[in-house]
Write a structure and sequence with these properties.
The strands form two sheets. The chain has a six-stranded parallel β-sheet with strand order 1-3-4-5-2-6, with helices on both faces. It is globular. It is built from 21 helices and eight strands. The chain folds into three domains: 212 residues, Rossmann fold (3-Layer(aba) Sandwich), CATH 3.40.50; 54 residues; 175 residues, no CATH class. The protein is of the alpha/beta class.
Length: 466
Amino acid sequence: GERVTKNNLQIVVRRHAYINRPHISDLDEVDKVSNVSEKRRDWGNAINTSIFYGRTEELATVKNWVITDRCRLLGVFGIGGIGKTAFANKLAEQVQAEFTLFAWKSLRYAPTVETMLSELVSFLTNQAITALPSDFDRLLAMLIQVLKQSRCLIVFDNVESILRSGETTGHYIEGYEGYGQLFRQISEEHHQSCLILTSREKPSDVLPPESSDRMVRSLQLSGLNVEEARHLLNKELAFTPEISKLIDLYCGNPLALKFVSILISHRFNGNIQAFLDQEMNVFEDIRELIDQQYSRLSDLEQQVMYWLAIVREPITIDNLRQNIVHIVSKSQILESVISLRWRSLIEKNANSFTQQFIVMKYMTNRLIDMAFKSTIEHNPEFLMSYALVENRAEDYIRETQIRHILQPLTKRLVAHYGTVETLHRELHSLLDRLHDRQTSIGYAQANIINLLKSSQEDLAIDDDHL
């Protein structure tokens, strides 16, 4: 009765073959499994966590899941830079004594499931890869047998590398669906081992945190608190009066704080307030980090991200739907919002959703970049889809949108065209093109009028200075 599509054909065939396979004890491979009672460790390319601060409560919770509850599958999720790899590494260090075998595997370069299983089974059974079967089903059967015979701890790092981009999160790249069967098998079969996954995105096979299944657990890793984050910063910054504001601004993201502390020390002589007053753009290292996640979003997820940056405060799904130009259903918006939460790109606040500062800053910069490109190329599609300033918003929201979106875009356009007069000429030309269109123009006309007003105000300010 299972529905078969071109995307899941391979995995369905594999699953039914596995169900109808001979019992594990009848397989030749069982005889090949060596004595695995001797403790062995393969840390692979795991990072050094000798310097590690905070996460005391999270570690205590997860250690209880692994040791006391004996969970079989544990997912550690969070935005880039939040410390998922370091957390999994520290957890493994603290619980490894409970396990006979330990293996750390990185999926960063998306190895095939057969390659990963061959390497893993080779280590766990202490056999050469050449002595192992090459097909997925027999390798998976051998792995499950080892997980039953011995208490094994396995970490798969960077699981997002095997998930598809361009759509809502959780689906595997074509040809990598076997990982889904691997995760399901480990979570469902009775054994004494544990597989830990770290990922920026949640695979569809891992249950949400509120699930009551004690065998499959998920931890959404958030930022460090002020006291924990202090230890990551340069000593001259750690106890300055403005440090709490800086840490809150970057939501305790360890990697972001590391980058920003270096920047403040080198370019602002350790003056945090001077850095905050500059309202600097998201610097390159962090931008690249979020770029990687943004590039994986579906079209609707990208639209939601832009609107959250425009609105700049928590917004409900109904209001999000009203803002989006193209007709979308409430269920489509909800699906995208859930997916973005599991990508750790947005946060829930009661019945509303918003972005962390660092993500909102990134999306604001991206919004300005796209609006600039749309304007100078006389291609109004982007300007039609998003409001630079919401004319019906509360005054304080409009003022924030003008300050963070409209004014920076206006200054960039004036710099591009050389004079305000030239900019006005180009904007009026774009307006004329809109009037010739037979279809809806969305927010484009209001955006152009706001740019005309904003550039005129900048010209008046410049005249006053003169």
